[in-house]
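debug: dumping io for the single-chain case to check the tokenizer round-trip. Nothing else runs in this session.
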Amino acid sequence: MKILVTGGCGYIGSHTVIELLENNYEVVIVDNLINSKIEVLDKIKKITGKKVKFYNYDLCDNSKVEEVFKEEKLDAVIHFAGLKAVGESVSKPLMYYENNLLSTINILKNMMKYKVKKIVFSSSATVYGNPKSLPIKEDFPLHTTNPYGTTKLMIENILEDLYKADSSFDITILRYFNPIGAHKSGLLGEDPNGIPNNLMPYIVKVATGKLPILNIFGDDYKTVDGTGVRDYIHVLDLAHGHLLALENKKTGLKIYNLGTGHGTSVLELVKMFEKVNKVKVNYQITERREGDIDACYASSEKARDELGFTCKYTLEDMCLDSYNFVKSNQ
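debug: decoded output
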């Protein structure tokens, strides 16, 4: 099978590409490199021994998207590409709506035209907003607290409407929680352009002296130590979840949470990172960020029962692998 992976040079995309290649899928990547690096392609080849076809295209340009579909004779799409920083989405909402929605619509239009009927969509736990209870199940009410999350929910609605109109589509929506960690080789990991938006790359940059101090946004949440609680999942487990979704025999429209089912606070993560890597992470408490919630962790029973999804890696693995990646690439 030939799989189009949009955003395949990005953090989760590149690890999923490796998972696909190691399971003998043919992969085509489309990525505009706005928040990823071209060197990732060489690293994928080094890890897998396989080369992937790459298009440096912007998915908001429909003519470019059609060119890929026309050329490649695809069997399925895994759609990662999109802007993803919560804070930036609050300050630049129109940019997020235009980019994330238009790129997805272009993909779906060409899937219809070229009769590619299988898609796995990278959604997010942000679609649950501030949940009334935990753990979060797939049938919980949906509500977003920032434009980034709203684009994810709107795309879910688009996919649901598309399925109602054409039930020959096979659509899997994966709502994942907080991916961290890196490839065991140390070659691939989360390597954002500029100042990181996500917690783990920020922790690592402080630990290695590239940034002076970690800002922890708020310590007055209703959690174990006042800092926000999230469900951190190893990126390798997440990548495997995409393979399972692709190979799922159940057809139709399916929605799954991908998480560990366990919440960890920001301070707990910092302390674990310090412990396993024997380093000091300087931090300071600052004001809450708009759009952030107290706690968020998954019920992943449905993914376990229907996909056979279980998490292999621990929080210690996530901290060790994240640090190993940065040290290996200094």
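debug: round-trip ok. The longest strand covers residues 118-124.
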